[in-house]
Design brief:
Elements lengths: L1 H8 L11 E6 L2 E8 L4 E3 L2 E2 L3 E14 L2 E6 L2 E5 L6 E15 L5 H8 E2 L8 H12 L5
Antiparallel strand pairs: 1-2, 2-8, 3-8, 4-9, 5-6, 5-7, 5-8
């Protein structure tokens, strides 16, 4: 939350869903995918429920409360409830999440799967260390 607050005050910061999203629905499933361009620093929303995520294309470094994860597509894992991430995008990325819901209204889905409540914050020093380390993984 600290890094998000600081980013919100920086010049040139984009807010909201500023990267292209795609929405698909299956039997009781909602799939959301996002394109994130190289060089972007992104703070995710807080997820209420465990769900799978997939890095379909590209590479990024992800800062979580458990440490830094360097991801290169193809990759998949499970998001734990309460997760909020900071992502630094090394190569253009396509990221997808899958959620269990019978809803098809995007606003209702957002209310259902995203938490408005904070989770324990990461210290700014930890964020700066993450960015320094993450940039070492940028392709030349």
């Amino acid at each position: 939350m600290d890094i998000q607050e600081k980013m919100d005050k920086a010049p040139g910061v984009m807010h909201g869903n500023c990267f292209p999203l795609q929405h698909q629905f299956g039997e009781g499933l909602y799939v959301r995918s996002i394109f994130m361009p190289k060089g972007a620093l992104i703070v995710s929303k807080i997820h209420k429920y465990a769900h799978p995520y997939f890095c379909m294309k590209g590479s990024c470094s992800v800062l979580t409360d458990e440490g830094v994860l360097h991801i290169k597509a193809p990759f998949h894992d499970i998001t734990k409830p309460g997760t909020k991430r900071v992502l630094y995008i090394h190569e253009d990325c396509v990221w997808a999440t899958v959620h269990s819901t019978k809803e098809t209204d995007l606003k209702k889905i957002e209310d259902e799967i995203i938490s408005k409540e904070e989770i324990p914050h990461m210290e700014v020093a930890k964020i700066n260390e993450f960015l320094t380390e993450a940039r070492k993984h940028d392709a030349p």
